[in-house]
Amino acid sequence: MEFRYLGNSGLKISEITYGNWLTHGSQVENEAALACVRAALDAGITTFDTADVYANTKAESVLGEALAGERRESLEIMTKVYFPTGPKGPNDTGLSRKHILESINGSLSRLGTDYVDVYQAHRFDVETPLEETMQAFADVVRQGKALYIGVSEWTADQLREGHALAKELGVQLISNQPQYSMLWRVIEPEVVPTSKELGISQVVWSPVAQGILTGKYLPGEPPPAGSRATDDKGGANMIGQFMNDDLLARVQNLKPIASDLDLTMAQLAVAWVLANDNVACAIVGASRPEQVTANAAASGVELSADVLQAIDDALGDVVVSDPGYTAQGMPKHRLS
């Protein structure tokens, strides 16, 4: 396993990071979840990403149980706050001072730790003054409950404003967690250049496009039984944007490229996002331990310029690169 600095900080994280969105506490039974975390540790993964909203707090509890007994100093744990949790009352959501300070305490209790390495704003809260949000995050850091702060799916302008406030408050905003894959490149035109300027790294989710880039979904055929596209607990909704025959046919064009490199298609997809020097890590999830082991093998794989061009040629115009999608996907009001 190789490691990269997170933003303009001295913190190193494993370039393959284990995430438990859509798995722990919902899709995957606890025994399987524990086995996946064990496989991640065995593969050299030290960085784990979760959020309080995943399975309405259950995912944090499962991760905390899985990591119990591990040397805390040898791990990097990241969690997030914003989306509704608990009974979903009027203050159980957003980035108000009240919700942030109460949420970090809940997350720490469930994770079984005194602090998280990175505490992240899961989305931008349009209903709370950014000054209030950043002051609350700064206080979390000063209380020793988080070492650094990060955000998720913020636009370039939001990153710039948040970074300026964090600097004024004497805390480090070092990461952004966007969706990024061969198929979804909306961060490249604006978010990545701004992040490089500010010293912010990308902690990317869905590098395998929720399984699409494994090649297991074939055009004109029903999705495999038990796959995310058949999951009625949220997985099918998330993957739906990619489920069209033209896109699936283009993805099949990647098979010979992966084969020539002696990689699985998933490993090729993970290596592709890591080829971007603003990416600190690729978050991978799993429902089976062997998936973790296989994806971890993408660490250290280098793709030549010719291979990167071949990937672009294979996918053609199914790639989404419009930077406007980041703002478009931002909640227009606080969710409840």
From TrEMBL:
InterPro entries: K_chnl_volt-dep_bsu_KCNAB-rel, NAD(P)_OxRdtase_dom_sf, NADP_OxRdtase_dom. Gene3D superfamilies: NADP-dependent oxidoreductase domain (3.20.20.100). Keywords: NADP, Oxidoreductase. The keyword Oxidoreductase applies. GO terms for molecular function: oxidoreductase activity. It comes from Micropruina glycogenica. Belongs to the shaker potassium channel beta subunit family. This is Aldo/keto reductase. Signal peptide: none annotated. PANTHER family: HYPERKINETIC, ISOFORM M (PTHR43150:SF2). It comes from the Bacteria. Residues 15-314 form the NADP-dependent oxidoreductase domain. SUPFAM superfamilies: NAD(P)-linked oxidoreductase.
